[in-house]
């Protein structure tokens, strides 16, 4: 009887884990189910005499299961019982329909794994006299209640209609009238009627082999009711499917023996689509294409979705159809295709979910009250209704149900703090095994337990999201630190941040007293802002809130520094409110989150927001996430961990907004505070553009300007027109700060700007570096005038030995190569690697200065560019007189390219100085893969004998060849130069 897999050995995993039987417990008798979904209210079944006993629901029980337990899939008796019979036991008589029904269900465990259940429900005759007698008693009580109700309201039209119908049936309004009334609704008389009760056969499997399980259970039922017994005892067939039938191998089919006929199932291979055994065509048939597309859209948007049907299997079919269509994505949120009646309060969960709810037989769905935000689907079949719930809390179907729920919540809210703590502790002690709360136990402790699960889930999600964000940002370093289990698979940073924004919205939506606006977080921030502004007005100190100014300032003091940017939650809100590009509250909340995250203030801002406990208590119920102190602290701690990495999630998204920038020019000498008689100017450039040339007012060292978002800042062009008697200008560095994000960049200079001094430059391109944030005490110190320094040109001429210079060149080239091997999102600034400290240009300057005869007593300083200029002049004159005619064609082309690039740089209208021109030659040569070809030409020029010592590295053939081979390693990469570097160069 064991199954055989076509062409493969049996795999160790079993086809099924459990065989379960659920039904009535004859020992305990008829026990009413705790909660009924009558569409009217929550009531005790024993107290609801308006319904016929045959229409009521009663407690079911797991009568038997085999095996007792499976180690890798522990048996959850409460969950299986609820899902096998979601509405409890039901009774029928011989006059009622008793066709067998089939449905399936899913149990999702805490680790996200799923177990599938397949249920065959049928009706068997009740043989217990006690059960029949109890049903007879219930019927008589119902009969008496109906008679009393009819006699007490005989004047009403409904009673007259009932009386008329009874007279039409030929009964007099005596004791027999009650019998006729109840018979119309479904009666029971133990002396003449046969009583039947529902019973369920269930298979629990690790995979959704729906068709195979359905056929096996149907054959099992046929064997149970058959007049002749099957060939083997029924226990043999159960043992076979549990222990001898394996899971099909990947990509193979499996055929095993049922009771009467063989059963076949198939498992997809690794390269195929996942197993989808539920009929997708039926989902389209039930909903229609247009409606299914709308439901699918809501699923992608992670909304709250409730499926509504009388048939359990149809709920499962549509839910599985939707999740199947999501492939290759997965639904990561709450997934309960069949929601048991006793767990209706789970519809209040403030999280995305996909749930299925059975409609009561005979319920008039046209009278179903749904929130206004629900989008009604008119095209659905009469037996199946799908409602899309977008940010809603499930409402009762009648005013009575709303009244009962409101009363329960009101009673819970009136508890004092001591009782609240007591109940919360009690709820925590209940653990996670409470799955089916009883109506009699709907105490504040159980209500707290239910909400506690939501709080716990939100906290767990926050922990996972922050961890995923850190791992994604840290990349390989995080894996090396042991964080590989977060399973980051190339998720975009923007997607993770958007997911964090959604999580914060759901946290702020949990337990709201009254929802105001579309964004709960922004609504809370607006309440906080109004409260703080009111307190500031009362204190007559509006300056405490509004400290920002964009007007230009003049520093008359000699202590030039970048003024500190005060941390202010209100000011960050004002920045967002001033952005006309953002039209909605949800958009403002997301922009505020991104700004706070970029400034590494998200945890601090939210902690400040929640520190106003009176405001939080006013806006939120006592069980809300934001009022759970311990969980709130953990939540803020998880957000604080994001400060370990740098985000530019605000700057990179809002690229068209106007941003105020502050510029501070820091001179080296105190006398330079008087600035210069010339007309200075500055141009700030970033990844998204530049500010254009801006004139700096004379004798002003600090200014602010508004400009469209420049992105990450990269360079600053600083210069003047050399006018007046005091035209020389010695600048140490330029500091530029984004006044919204607080990012501060330092652009080192350390050089003179002026004719006849240094290299004669009137303009310099400064390469920026982001200043790391520091404590409040250190921030001002970091931005003050640094100690006296020599210019970079002088510093680069410090005598280094040849080994140190070669090591510097190798390191500079390696840094550029590593830059291109990193993922694009992890790359830094290529401009810094080319022109900054320890860059390629700096390393090559050291090489060219080795053995260079530049220091002349009582003479002008000679620069490397002077050597290049003389070498090019020699090449051009040699070409003119024909000395280059004997050289190869390739050599001629190389000479022509060097002369062409030299002339283009030398003829530019920019006054960038000799060192700046050499920097441009190196950058252009590296970009166009010409630099290694130019070096031999420079060495062969006779002028090298006049300008370099015999021991110079440039005159050592082996050293030169090594340098050429190192520079050729850059030919594999496409180097793009920033526009500010090559501005004014015509090639």
From TrEMBL:
Domain of life of the native organism: Eukaryota
Keywords: Guanine-nucleotide releasing factor, Membrane, Repeat
Region (Disordered): 149-186, 537-560
Ranges where the PLAT domain occurs: 659-767
Family: Belongs to the RAB6IP1 family.
Protein's recorded name: DENN/MADD domain containing 5B
Segments forming domain RUN: 491-655, 831-982
GO MF, any single term: guanyl-nucleotide exchange factor activity
Domain UDENN as annotated: residue spans: 42-539
PROSITE patterns tied to this protein: DENN, PLAT, RUN
Chief subcellular location: membrane
